[in-house]
Design brief:
This protein has 304 residues and is an alpha/beta fold. It contains ten helices and nine strands. α1 (13-28) packs across α10, α2 (52-63) packs across α10 and α3 packs across α4. The protein is globular and about 55 Å long. Bound molecules: N-carbamoyl-L-aspartate. N-carbamoyl-L-aspartate binds at residues 52-53, 124, 130, 133, 163-164, 226, 264-265.
Length: 304
């Protein structure tokens, strides 16, 4: 059956766990997977900037012995001539076996999936969802904390426009005993559809706070995010909010020794460089894990 990954909940919790197990094994024994996707092609259709997501998708496919094609600048594609997503994906289906799409419009990958005969992976749609980043985040949380349940998770920064935040929350609350501390300025709070339909409707314990310092001592995981400049309507608001949170070595003093600090990257100012040397910093490891979860996902969606 043709499967896509558009929303994090397109995968059941059991499927997520088995993908993470596979990704762990791929990290330990990459040599066992070198031929897995031989002769298969991944198309990367990126209508918005990206470094990690696109390159880790490409590295993943190359690690599996497959090939990649695509574009990273939509001005160079026929989108610039006014081609619709529906037409583009119908054609890509004839050229590739699977595709990863990033688009500034919320819902574009979903629309593509409806016209596609190959699996479509949402590699980030506007300020909406980013399900493969969530797999990366979950793999890193499990590696660092040794579990995906019974955790107090602080999510800090731009919770309104940060699609990685929306996907992480939707996915992690399916595990038992998750407590969320949502840390943001008032203007950048998590959208209502998350607080109402996900958190309140499912009785998940959560608080919405302004202060990172107050939350710090309780956290098992701290997920920092950048203020999403490109989604603001005006530059003034961005400038006013961009430095709302800056994690420093000093601010980490009251934190648990077992804390893991995650960030989907790119970082702008939210984490000072000195924090990189703290053993609790997990964000570069997290970026590396992106390759393994995407290898696992490609194999899963291609039925390999
Ligand atoms: C994130 C994204 O694109 O949403 N980047 C990524 O994929 N690792 C986070 C961001 O851009 O802030």
């Amino acid at each position: 059956m043709l499967r896509h990954l558009i929303d994090p909940l397109d995968l059941s919790r059991e499927e997520v766990i088995s993908l993470l197990d596979l990704a762990d094994d791929m990290k330990k024994h990459p040599e066992n997977y070198r031929e897995k996707a031989r002769y298969k092609k991944l198309a990367t259709l990126f209508y918005e900037p990206s470094t990690r997501t696109r390159l880790s998708f490409e590295a993943a496919m190359l690690n599996l012995g497959g090939n990649v094609l695509g574009f990273s600048d939509s001005n160079q594609s026929s989108a610039a001539k006014g081609e619709s997503i529906a037409d583009t994906i119908r054609v890509i289906g004839a050229y590739a076996d699977i595709c990863a799409m990033r688009h500034p419009k919320e819902g574009a990958p979903l629309r593509a999936s409806r016209y596609s005969r190959i699996p479509v992976i949402n590699a980030g749609d506007g300020g909406h969802q980013h399900p493969t980043q969530t797999l990366t985040d979950l793999m890193t949380i499990r590696e660092r904390a040794g579990r995906l349940e019974d955790l107090t998770i602080g999510v800090c920064g731009d919770l309104k426009f940060g699609r990685t935040v929306h996907s992480l929350i939707k996915s992690i609350i399916r595990f038992p005993n998750i407590r969320l501390v949502l840390i943001s300025p008032e203007e950048l709070r998590v959208p209502d559809y998350i607080t109402e339909d996900e958190l309140k409707a499912k009785n998940i314990p959560f608080t919405e706070v302004r202060s990172l310092d107050d939350a710090m001592p309780d956290l098992d995981i701290l997920y920092m995010t950048r203020v999403q400049r490109e989604r603001f309507f005006n530059e003034e608001d961005y400038v006013r909010l961009k430095n709302s949170y800056i994690l420093t070595v000093d601010k980490l003093r009251p934190a648990k020794e077992s804390l893991a600090i995650l960030h989907p990257l790119p970082r702008v100012n939210e984490i000072t460089l000195a924090v990189d040397d703290d053993p609790r910093a997990a964000y570069f490891e997290q970026a590396e894990n992106g390759v393994y979860v995407r290898m696992a996902l490609i194999c899963f969606l291609l039925g390999l």
